[in-house]
Amino acid sequence: MAIVAVVGATGRQGSATVRHLLAAGWDVRALTRRPRSVAARTLVALGAEAVQVDLDDVVSLRTAFDGAIGVFNVQNPMTSSVEAEIRHGRNVAAAAADVGVGHVVYGAAGVGDTETGVPSWDSKLAVARAFRERGLALTVLQPMAFMELMTDTGFYPSVAVWSVMPRLAGSSRPIGWLSLDDLGAIAAHVFTAPDHWADTELGLVADVRTIDECRSLWADAFGRRPRGIPMPTWMFERFVGADLPTMWRWLRDNEFEMSVETTRSILPDALTVPEWLAGVSRGGPDPLPR
Ligand SMILES: NC(=O)c1ccc[n+]([C@@H]2O[C@H](COP(=O)([O-])OP(=O)(O)OC[C@H]3O[C@@H](n4cnc5c(N)ncnc54)[C@H](OP(=O)(O)O)[C@@H]3O)[C@@H](O)[C@H]2O)c1
Fold first, then answer.
1. What is the pTM of this model?
2. Counting CB atoms within 10 angstroms of each CB, which of 65, 76, 218, 227 has the fewest?
3. Nearest C-alpha to atom 13 of ligand 1 is from which residue?
């Protein structure tokens, strides 16, 4: 079977994509800085080939992409910086174009194709531009909020989604949610029909819920209210930077398109928030070991 190379394979979006690509029968190259990490070895045990790369090293990317018909791309500005995200995305674009990759699926973020002033959304537009300028066939996946924001300790849910986010965005502000597993399923699906999905941007929302609704759905699933830890915005910014507060204020102040139509047309069974919470409360999907 043909090869897809997955950037960020050990991470949240990448690992979900690797799992679905493997299940669909693709040969998968799982790109990582640390092929011997627990997360990378977990993917190898599932059938992927771990390939060592550094996103600052275009030669390593070229080698990793050589012979692949598809590349899944993702960067995380929260663990690097917005500048590094754009630089790394451009390196992926350069390497993919150099070796003639046929289709790039980009795990991005945001609410459309115009600049918002939210740094980690505008950076995605810059990276997408780099792929297009290189003439690559590109599908941009645009999830808004992952359901894992409510549970993944790496997202500090007590402080973020249950406290600072509703304070800044408004607890009755509708938010578009998608589970990471469904992001991976949709990414894998898109690779099966490059001609159909090339040059498209897919706003991915499986359910639209306010934080107030999520709080009460959480209580239904777990039998208790989620714990919120109040924190002043300045202190939150000191820990994680200004990007998320900027995003959440933008959500409060702006109107934007949010529809489950695209997601449901590709994946009719994409999980709603209550379905996903019910699964997690029964011991459902956890992030890969780090
Ligand atoms: N949180 C949300 O609700 C949400 C919603 C929509 C979109 N997003 C977007 O999702 C993106 C983050 O995705 P994610 O959560 O999947 O990220 P993640 O879990 O942090 O994974 C990123 C992976 O990239 C790899 N990596 C980092 N630096 C590297 C380098 N220099 N060279 C090679 N590999 C490198 C790491 O793997 P190794 O350590 O194995 O090398 C890591 O596993 C962000 O752009 C964010 O804007 C988030």
1. 0.97
2. 227
3. 76
